[in-house]
């Protein structure tokens, strides 16, 4: 063997090294398993699709021609949201509310809300908008997103025809809100943008009748319809679900940039809005991302619009994640405050001090919220009782 | 060599059954462990095994070297399979998501296919190998050997390994015999290069199998930072840490996290504040975290906390989320069994269990359970439990669920209110009830964080009216033997995922019909026997749990009795030479008779049977089933190589039995109609045999 290649000694040495190398298998495997923890995760786009041939053959009582669409007599394109669904006759949009019948776009969600409730305004959450008031809240079915943790999936992921509803056309909504003695109406629960026509007509009448209008939404709307709607909007709570387009695609089935544009438009149009971020563990818990998000908010929207960090609880399909640690919420709140945002709140944690409003100038407590009711209220005409600093919001 | 091959068949049985049990447990922690998932996993396992057996049918000559490689692969692949199941999940599904029916099915098939195909293939293939190297055994003997291995694997895992070892080590131990045999065969064949390769694979397998570090890190992608990890007989308990927060996971789902005050306050105060004085409280599950401290605000004399899994309470005590207290007694047993046997009378019974989507949990939402609970309550006592719902809109399927449970409880309690909190809380009592919880708490001077501040905004009069108005009094009653709630839960699950099982059944039914048209009549008989045997096993376990409560060892004993009965039946069948056809028909009659006995018992006697009677019944039932297998093979004739066809018919029948019984028959029709349907299925095989022409009978 000698001179030809491997000697017996070499062979034994190689074998010995090989066998001892086997003992590193657990370490190699552990390193591989660990690396698959985050960076190899599936993040497939879950954006919804058009429902071909799913439109009803005839319109029903609760239909209205779409407000923003184009048609070539056969194909129609909805321009309300960035999905911009192109529908052939008989098709239904991604949000399930719009259909193409005879070359025209119709909304099937008009005057047929399936959820009608009276809620505290703080539940939306809106903390700088008529505190402690009640708000008449409505929703029809439909959503242009596919959020895996949707709390209202039983209506957001259904067609208008599939649910039990009540008949409330716009004028009746306003009448009901007045009967309940609420100063405002919220378009909420599912996704208000999908029943745009209903919301628009209702908010117009409500505005004329002296009621305020509040949009609670994912903010996935195009600029033109939003500008038109903004004339009648007094407040909004818009979800900023993440600050990464990738996460928007795989947890929500949407895109980030149109949402950012919505914030800018609302700002330009002078609509009071607050922002909500649901802190989903393992997805939306990167402090660096939150830092970037706060940086963008400060640059584009300024420091005055409140930001709510909400605690996540498992819901709908996203049930194999733990609730958000309170410590993470506190850390994010600190990051946002340190970055310069004036009003940062923690939500879904009863009794937490992060639910109160503190003056950004003197730091004293302005509104104490032991729940939906108010403890201390230290504002006079929208100004801090202690240092007379003007506090942004709609206070009366 | 023959002896080694015979031992390898037994060892394959041991290794494959242990792997099957470990894999099924793994899938149940990977996916939502409802009855559909359980049935789907078992069905997929048996079906792919059957396909593997069918693949061996056209093979004429068996190679001993290939056989040797196959058995080694079977022994060691079980470990990479387990790792793949854990790791591939996040590549296929979005992290944190519970997937729906079809995606679960594809995932199961994808991950188990190599292993199950090999296991299904190797059994009939071993006969062909024996034909080449020695005198082969008969198909019936092969069945007996496989059964010995199956019993060995079942007993080894269920009564020993599950208590002491985690899955990696359990696989390593259960594969030991098969690995040794494969090494011995390869050495005996004087294939030294192959022997060297086998040795390296074996060493690698054991190094990985005995590494706790590797096992723990294979779980981390799913769970995160694991503090502690226990495999109990009831499932997997993982405790993770997210900053200072602890989360307890039971079978892959987070069921407790620190600082969930809303849940604790709602489940405790809604029922307890209804009472003027709280002396004795029974809490069935859900006692971790703040729950017990909320109960203590009422200053009770005694709190009995019943939790099935002792490992759960032990790890909770260690983690500091369950504090020891002289007034609190922890009972680790089945809640239903406890409530049936306890002599105390309670002021309040709080049930905090998951949704009734398995037969096991459904037992806590039935007419019979509420009757038992009423007996355990003192006069004017209160019972509470909660169900999932959506606060803003209650869908049709959830309206039906709430209505069925309401109507069932209403048969035993004069007053019931449903409080629309984060969940729908059912408060049941014969005395007065109020939904004005903050007022009651004020009267009792009990302070809370959530209820005081948020109740009136969340539980408005309008929402209270809405939830209580959705109850349809005409919806049926949920009973132990007619688990309507399980059926509704299936619908809710499919509804949530926007899918329907129809396509699955549309493919499965014609596929099965086609298969049945192609097989021999003897194989059809085995198909129906496999189906009836597996279905009856499921029904017996279910009825046993209903009557005696869920006791791990006793359920294990039932499964062992079923497996144990097959063996002597098959042994006697192997030595039976005469009147084979008549005996087969007689055995079909006897199986039919056994089903009839079960039906009569389920209709008229029910709860008066002792545990040994259950075991004897299981043994006799499967004795008849086991007896049929070698007889069928004999009737077909060894010259027609009946092994593949018979084994696959038996496996496919068992798979179909699991699926139909677990997902369709029991939830939709109840236990009695299911037994009747099984009797009809058995009648079909009797008829086919009775009308079989003489010419069709294979020579014996």
Task: Lay out the secondary structure.
The complex is a heterodimer of chains A (396) and B (700).
Chain A: H1 8-22, H2 25-35, E1 64-65, E2 69-71, E3 76-78, E4 86-87, E5 98-101, E6 104-107, E7 115-120, E8 134-139, H3 153-156, H4 170-179, E9 184-187, H5 196-208, E10 212-217, H6 223-230, E11 235-239, H7 245-252, H8 256-269, E12 272-279, H9 287-300, E13 307-311, H10 326-339, E14 344-347, E15 357-358, E16 365-367, E17 379-380, E18 383-384
Parallel strand pairs in A: 8-9, 9-10, 10-11, 11-12, 12-13, 13-14
Antiparallel strand pairs in A: 1-6, 2-3, 3-4, 5-6, 7-8, 15-16, 17-18
Helix pairs in contact in A: 4-5, 6-8, 9-10
Chain B: H1 2-30, H2 35-55, H3 64-92, H4 101-133, H5 139-164, H6 167-174, H7 176-188, H8 192-209, H9 212-223, E1 226-232, E2 235-242, E3 245-250, E4 253-257, H10 261-272, E5 280-284, H11 291-296, E6 302-306, H12 310-319, E7 328-331, H13 335-341, E8 346-351, H14 359-362, H15 367-376, E9 377-387, H16 396-410, E10 415-420, E11 424-429, H17 437-443, H18 450-458, H19 461-469, H20 484-496, H21 502-518, H22 521-548, H23 552-575, H24 580-605, H25 611-636, H26 643-669, H27 671-690
Parallel strand pairs in B: 5-6, 5-8, 6-7, 8-9
Antiparallel strand pairs in B: 1-2, 2-3, 3-4, 9-11, 10-11
């Amino acid at each position: 063997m000698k001179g030809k290649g491997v000697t017996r000694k070499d062979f034994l040495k190689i074998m010995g090294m090989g066998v001892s190398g086997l003992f590193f298998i657990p370490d190699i495997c552990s390193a591989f398993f660990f690396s698959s923890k985050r960076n190899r995760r599936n993040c497939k786009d879950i954006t919804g699709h058009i429902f071909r041939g799913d439109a009803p053959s005839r319109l029903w009582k609760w239909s209205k021609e779409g407000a923003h669409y184009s048609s070539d007599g056969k194909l129609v394109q909805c321009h309300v949201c960035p999905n911009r669904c192109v529908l052939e006759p008989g098709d239904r949009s991604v949000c399930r509310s719009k259909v193409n019948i005879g070359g025209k776009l119709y909304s099937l969600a008009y005057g047929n809300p399936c959820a009608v409730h009276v809620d505290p305004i703080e539940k939306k959450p809106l903390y700088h908008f008529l505190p402690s008031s009640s708000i008449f809240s409505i929703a029809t079915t439909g959503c242009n997103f596919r959020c895996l943790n949707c709390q209202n999936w039983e209506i957001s992921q259904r067609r208008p025809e599939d649910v039990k509803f009540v008949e409330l056309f716009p004028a009746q909504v306003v009448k009901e809100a007045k009967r309940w003695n609420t100063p405002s109406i919220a378009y909420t629960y599912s996704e208000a943008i999908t029943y745009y026509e209903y919301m628009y007509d209702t908010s117009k009448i409500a505005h004329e009748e002296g009621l305020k209008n509040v949009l609670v939404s994912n903010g996935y709307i195009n600029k033109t319809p939003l500008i038109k709607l903004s004339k009648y909007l007094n407040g909004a709570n818009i979800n900023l679900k993440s600050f990464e387009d990738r996460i928007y695609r795989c947890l929500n089935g949407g895109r980030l940039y149109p949402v950012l544009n919505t914030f800018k438009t609302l700002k330009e149009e002078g609509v009071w809005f607050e922002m909500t971020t649901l802190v989903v563990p393992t997805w939306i818990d990167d402090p660096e991302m939150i830092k970037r998000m706060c940086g963008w908010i400060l640059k584009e929207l300024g420091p005055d619009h409140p930001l709510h960090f909400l605690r996540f609880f498992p819901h709908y399909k996203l049930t194999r994640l733990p609730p958000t640690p309170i410590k993470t919420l506190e850390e994010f709140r600190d990051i946002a405050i340190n970055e310069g945002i004036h009003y940062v709140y923690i939500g879904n944690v009863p009794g937490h001090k992060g639910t109160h409003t503190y003056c950004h100038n003197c730091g004293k407590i302005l509104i104490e919220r032991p729940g939906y009711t108010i403890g201390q209220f230290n504002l006079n005409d929208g100004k801090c009782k202690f240092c007379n600093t003007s506090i942004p919001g709609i206070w009366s | 060599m023959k002896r080694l091959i015979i031992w390898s068949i037994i060892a394959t049985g041991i290794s494959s059954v242990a792997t099957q049990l470990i894999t099924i447990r793994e899938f149940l922690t990977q996916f939502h462990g409802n009855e559909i998932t359980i049935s789907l996993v078992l069905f997929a396992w048996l079906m792919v095994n059957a396909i593997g057996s069918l693949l061996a049918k056209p093979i004429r000559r068996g190679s001993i070297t290939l056989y040797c490689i196959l058995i080694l692969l079977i022994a060691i692949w079980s470990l990479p399979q387990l790792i793949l199941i854990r790791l591939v999940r996040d590549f296929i599904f979005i992290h944190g998501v519970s997937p729906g029916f079809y995606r679960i099915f594809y995932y199961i098939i994808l991950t188990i296919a190599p292993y199950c195909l090999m296991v299904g293939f190797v059994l009939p293939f071993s006969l062909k190998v024996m034909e080449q190297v020695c005198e082969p055994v008969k198909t019936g003997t092969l069945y007996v050997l496989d059964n010995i291995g199956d019993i060995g694997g079942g007993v080894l895992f269920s009564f020993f390994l599950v208590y002491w070892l985690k899955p990696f080590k359990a696989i390593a131990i259960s594969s030991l015999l098969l690995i040794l045999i494969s090494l011995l065969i390869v050495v005996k064949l004087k294939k030294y290069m192959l022997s060297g390769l086998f040795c390296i694979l074996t060493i690698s397998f054991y190094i990985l199998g005995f590494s706790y570090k590797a096992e723990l890190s294979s779980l981390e992608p799913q769970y995160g930072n694991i503090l502690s990890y226990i495999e109990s007989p009831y499932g997997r308990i993982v405790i993770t840490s997210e900053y200072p927060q602890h989360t307890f996971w039971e079978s892959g789902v987070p069921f407790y996290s620190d600082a969930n005050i809303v849940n604790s306050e709602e489940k405790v105060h809604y029922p307890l504040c209804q009472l003027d004085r709280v002396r004795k409280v029974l809490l069935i599950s859900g006692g971790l975290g703040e729950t017990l401290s909320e109960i203590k605000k009422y200053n009770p004399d005694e709190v009995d906390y019943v939790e099935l899994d002792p490992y759960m309470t032990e790890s909770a005590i260690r983690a500091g989320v369950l504090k020891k207290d002289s007034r609190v007694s922890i009972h680790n047993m089945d809640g239903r069994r406890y409530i049936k046997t306890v002599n105390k009378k309670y002021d309040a019974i709080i049930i905090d269990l998951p949704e009734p989507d398995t037969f096991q949990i459904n037992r806590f939402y039935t007419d019979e359970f509420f009757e038992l609970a009423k007996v355990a309550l003192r006069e004017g006592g209160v019972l509470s439990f909660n169900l999932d719902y959506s606060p803003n809109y209650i869908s049709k399927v959830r309206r039906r669920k709430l209505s069925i449970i309401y109507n069932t409880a209403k048969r035993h309690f004069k007053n019931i209110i449903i409080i629309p909190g984060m969940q729908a809380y059912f408060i049941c009592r014969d005395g007065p009830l109020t939904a004005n919880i903050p007022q009651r708490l004020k009267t009792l001077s009990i302070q809370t964080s959530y209820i005081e501040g948020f109740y009136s905004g969340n539980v408005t009069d309008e929402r209270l009216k809405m939830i209580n108005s959705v109850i349809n009094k005409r919806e049926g009653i949920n009973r132990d033997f007619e688990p309507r709630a399980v059926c509704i839960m299936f619908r809710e699950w499919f509804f949530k995922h926007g899918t329907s099982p129809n396509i699955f059944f549309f493919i499965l039914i014609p596929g099965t019909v086609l298969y049945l048209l192609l097989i021999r009549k003897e194989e059809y008989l085995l198909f129906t026997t496999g189906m009836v045997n597996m279905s009856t096993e499921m029904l017996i376990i279910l009825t046993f749990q209903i009557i005696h409560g869920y006791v791990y060892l006793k359920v294990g004993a039932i499964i062992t009795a079923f497996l144990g009965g097959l063996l002597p039946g098959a042994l006697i069948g192997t030595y039976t030479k005469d009147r084979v056809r008549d005996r087969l028909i007689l055995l079909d009659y006897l199986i039919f008779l056994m089903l009839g006995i079960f039906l009569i018992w389920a209709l008229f006697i029910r709860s008066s049977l002792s545990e040994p009677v259950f075991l004897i019944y299981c043994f006799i039932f499967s004795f008849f089933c086991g007896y049929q297998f070698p007889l069928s093979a004999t009737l077909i004739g060894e010259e027609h190589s009946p092994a593949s066809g018979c084994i696959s018919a038996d496996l496919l029948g068992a798979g179909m039995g699991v699926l139909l019984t677990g997902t369709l028959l029991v939830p939709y029709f109840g236990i009695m109609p299911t037994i009747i349907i099984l009797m009809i299925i058995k009648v079909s095989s009797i008829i086919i045999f009775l009308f079989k022409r003489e010419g069709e009978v294979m020579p014996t």
